């Protein structure tokens, strides 16, 4: 089966900020987004969209203390069958006229295609007591704490 996706915008990173710039035809989709503090952004790992990365199903220990071999579905690796990524981002402000959502952070490169945006709602997106394997149990418990965490002590690249 073949599926067709169309980017609704792009991630833009400059020296001052990070924002999502929507294509003009999608700007009406921002209506009533004000009041939400966070959004879930679905984006395309465009820098890893190649045959080699799409065929990688296992990887050697990407995190210190993790199993020696991990399936890509147990990682957040960009190398995967469909290079789709998800980031929960805090909204700083929304420019409804120009279709720009300024966010505090998104782990995507400049000009990365954005596939969809959904409001973060605790009733659907928050898990009160998530379980994780022992090897990553000391990782931060929130996106806010992740910003202050030394990820260099975790990643092996």
UniProtKB/TrEMBL annotation:
MF (Gene Ontology): methyltransferase activity
Domain TsaA-like: 5-129
Keywords: Methyltransferase, S-adenosyl-L-methionine, Transferase
CDD domains: UPF0066
Any one Gene Ontology BP term: methylation
Family matches, as Pfam families: TrmO_N (PF01980)
Gene3D superfamilies: YaeB-like (2.40.30.70)
Entries under InterPro entries matching the protein: TrmO-like_N, UPF0066_cons_site, YaeB-like, YaeB-like_sf, YaeB_N_sf
PANTHER family: TRNA (ADENINE(37)-N6)-METHYLTRANSFERASE
Record family assignment: Belongs to the tRNA methyltransferase O family.
Protein name: tRNA (N6-threonylcarbamoyladenosine(37)-N6)-methyltransferase TrmO
Organism encoding this protein: Sporofaciens musculi
